[in-house]
Design a protein that fits this description.
By secondary structure, chain A is mostly beta strands. Chain A contains two helices and seven strands; from the N terminus they run E-H-E-E-H-E-E-E-E. In chain B, strands 1, 2, 7, 8, 9, 10 and 17 form a seven-stranded mixed beta sheet that branches. The chains are: A mainly beta, B alpha+beta. Chains A and B meet through strand 6 and strand 7 of A and strand 4, strand 6, helix 10 and helix 11 of B.
């Protein structure tokens, strides 16, 4: 289970580092976020939701059946725009309104 | 190393659901100084970090708290304290209303009542439950929050607590906390057993891998009485992602089916442990892999289901999307992939498994045009210790006082009160701080003897001394997990154990604990990892003693004692323990007095 961090996109705001419940995210010499022990990630997606530039993305470990897709998120008011990027680069956006309860 | 002393009235160790709610409850009722210490940041710490999809403990229309007590005792095969359950259940609805007042979105029906899922659940948007609780905590000036601080030991003497000691994870700094009352809200223990996935999936766990059993370990080492550690929790989850299955079963009406397409859940029963056991039985008898199947779901309903998962376990939604995109026909055949591809070349489709179902087509936007059957492969996890689901934890009185004076416990750390879930954990936090506030008014704050601080400090600092160990923390953790897996009823042993194996486990865990003495940390984060390993080893040792003590099989869904494979009425009693002079001493407590305590 882990996340990937896009160093080019990362603006070094520290938002992900602040929320990681495992304190796994650190700043590199340029102030960009990186994960020292990817295998220690729980996959909670706290960092993904905290990232303002969609530089943090969740992926499913190969051992857990992962196929190389990634999940990032962008917040717009009450709306969370989840973006699934499939292995071939195509993507899909799923918008969740935090003002609506689950239907299940 | 620098040492900072902080004095407070109530020290809350752990800022998860129970700890945050306890702090808010105390701040609303008093001017007492409250200090919440967390090893991460309270916005996303604890087991609710990813979110939660429902309030799972609620008293629905026409039901009573007594109904909840009955349900929880039945699920725990009788090993649950009625007094604790009732005092918790009586507060569930107030906690739920309060969460709504704090900003939690709860679905309403046409009459403005909470929309229910069964009689015990209400539907919410729980993605942001922790940020909402954290915001409430931070709104009170009487609450101080200290984050990225790892508490490792209580300061106790003669059965009384003076505070606790820990260290910063960001600088070389030791914290000594002096408090009139201490609430342990650290959560339960993950990572004791070999998990489903290894390598990069080693933390694909049901429960937070950052909940390392610190609260149990500190209590055990301080001589607190613990209860029912032998009642481990095994979850039934979606394979690979380890995502919740309750949403599919309770919310979407999915049935458990085996590889032959037969619904098997009715053969075994529908309680949590029965669902888990049934799945393992089917697999053991050659009818796996098993799955949860929704007979018919349309595109809009599937979209809603995916959103529900995004709010509590985004990995499952990602997994569906990956598979859906991988091949247009794959959505219907989410499970059985290995079997099907072996039988049928490249295709994930196999007529024997899916015969008779309607076909469907995906539009360019990823929508499907006609209803489909949805199947998700399921598997059981490794065992955990978690007082919010089973009854493992501190032995407490109805006010959540532990057997150590001044020390309280709530949430997953507190025993005797299973099926409390998030709302029940918060209810316990409220009960505990009410009692703590009362107690500290009458008891004068005691002075902590300096030698207690020195002793605990030196025990921490020795791991920062120069030196090099042959083994790493990771290696010893894996050694511990292999030991527990093989000899103490892990997945690899089919959740079964016997006295001979437990004897081996006891010896090996003790050896690993000795080896862990040699570990050395280069910085504070490495020190945290050493402490977490050692906490788990303390918990494993006590757990093994509990497993040996209960000479029956009370919860076949969670494990089987091969020397005593049957349930016995004589064992309708509590197995408790206390560490005395380095030995785990077992105490049996009978059920008599349940009524008197009410």
């Amino acid at each position: 289970m882990s996340i990937s961090l896009d160093a080019e996109a990362c603006v070094g705001c520290g938002g992900c580092m602040a929320v990681c419940p495992g304190m796994l995210l650190e700043a590199d010499a340029k102030g960009k976020a990186f994960i020292r022990h990817p295998e220690d990630c729980w996959g909670c997606a706290a960092c993904v939701k905290a990232c303002p530039v969609e530089a943090a993305a969740l992926y499913l470990a190969a051992e857990a059946g992962g196929r190389g897709g990634k999940l990032s998120a962008r917040k717009e008011g009450a709306l969370l725009h989840w973006k699934v990027t499939r292995p071939d680069g195509a993507s899909e956006t799923i918008i969740v309104n935090s003002q609506n309860a689950n239907s299940y | 190393m620098r040492l900072e002393t902080v004095t407070t009235d109530i020290l809350i160790i752990g800022g998860g659901a129970a700890g945050c709610y306890a702090a808010v409850h105390a701040a609303r009722r008093s001017r007492a100084r409250v200090l919440v210490v967390d090893k991460a940041a309270i916005e996303r710490s604890g087991c609710l970090a990813p979110g939660v999809n429902a309030i799972n403990a609620y008293i629905g229309e026409g039901r009573t708290p007594e109904d909840y007590v009955k349900y929880a005792r039945h699920d725990a095969a009788g090993i649950a304290r009625e007094d604790l359950l009732l005092s918790m259940a009586e507060r569930l609805n107030a906690v739920t209303c309060d969460l709504e007042a704090l900003g939690l979105v709860i679905q309403k029906d046409g009459a403005g009542r909470y929309a229910q899922r069964g009689w015990r659940n209400v539907k919410i948007n729980g993605e942001n439950i922790k940020p909402l609780l954290a915001k409430a905590v931070r709104s009170f000036p009487s609450i101080r929050v200290l984050e990225r601080v790892n508490v490792v030991s209580y300061l106790t003497e003669n059965g009384k607590i003076f505070g606790a000691i820990g260290f910063s994870l960001t600088e070389e700094l030791i914290y000594v906390f002096h408090a009139s009352a201490v609430l342990c809200a650290t959560g339960g223990a993950a990572g004791l057993y070999l998990p489903n996935g290894g390598g990069s999936a080693r933390h694909a766990l049901w429960y937070s891998p950052f909940n390392t059993g610190a609260g149990y370990a500190m209590g055990i080492l301080a001589g607190a009485e613990m209860t029912t550690l032998e009642m481990r929790f095994v979850a039934l989850r979606c394979k690979g992602t380890i995502a919740p299955t309750g949403t599919l079963a309770l919310g979407a009406g999915a049935k458990q089916v085996n590889a032959l397409g037969e619904v098997y859940e009715n053969r075994y029963g529908l309680t949590t442990p029965e669902r888990a056991l049934g799945t393992r039985m089917e697999q053991a008898e050659g009818r796996g892999p098993c799955a949860l199947r929704v007979e018919s779901i349309d595109s809009a309903a599937f979209d809603a289901l995916r959103k529900a998962y995004l709010n509590m376990c985004p990995l499952q939604a990602l997994s569906w999307s990956e598979k859906k995109f991988a091949a247009p026909s794959s959505l219907e055949h989410i499970n059985f992939e290995t079997l099907c591809s072996a039988l049928n070349g490249e295709s994930e489709f196999h007529p024997r498994l899916t015969g008779g179902r309607r076909g469907f087509a995906l539009s360019a936007a990823g929508q499907f045009q006609s209803d489909i059957a949805l199947e998700v492969e399921i598997e059981c996890t490794e065992p955990y210790l978690v007082g919010g689901h089973t009854a493992s934890g501190y032995w407490v009185d109805i006010k959540r006082r532990t057997t150590i004076g001044g020390l309280f416990a709530a949430g997953d750390a507190a025993g005797g009160c299973p099926q409390k879930y998030a709302s029940g954990a918060m209810a316990e936090g409220a009960i505990a701080v009410e009692a703590a506030l009362e107690d500290i008014q009458t008891a004068a704050a005691a002075h902590c003897p300096e030698r207690l601080v020195c002793k605990s400090r030196d025990e921490m600092l020795r791991f920062l001394q120069p030196g090099k160990a042959l083994f790493t923390v990771d290696e010893l953790e894996t050694a511990m997990q292999h030991t527990m897996d093989a000899y103490a009823g892990g997945m690899g042993a089919g959740y079964a154990f016997n006295m001979a194996g437990l004897g081996k486990a006891e010896v090996r865990i003790s050896e690993i604990a000795s080896m862990s003495e040699e570990l050395r940390a280069g910085d504070m984060r490495e020190l945290k990892r050493i402490c977490e390993l050692r906490e788990r080893l303390v918990v494993c040792r006590a757990l093994i003693a509990h497993l040996r003590a209960r000479e029956e099989t009370r919860w076949p869904g969670y494990g089987r004692n091969d020397d005593y494979p049957e349930k016995s009425a004589a064992w309708l009693r509590y197995v408790n323990s206390v560490l005395r002079e380095g030995r785990v001493e077992i105490i049996f407590r009978d059920m008599a007095g349940e009524k008197e305590r009410l």
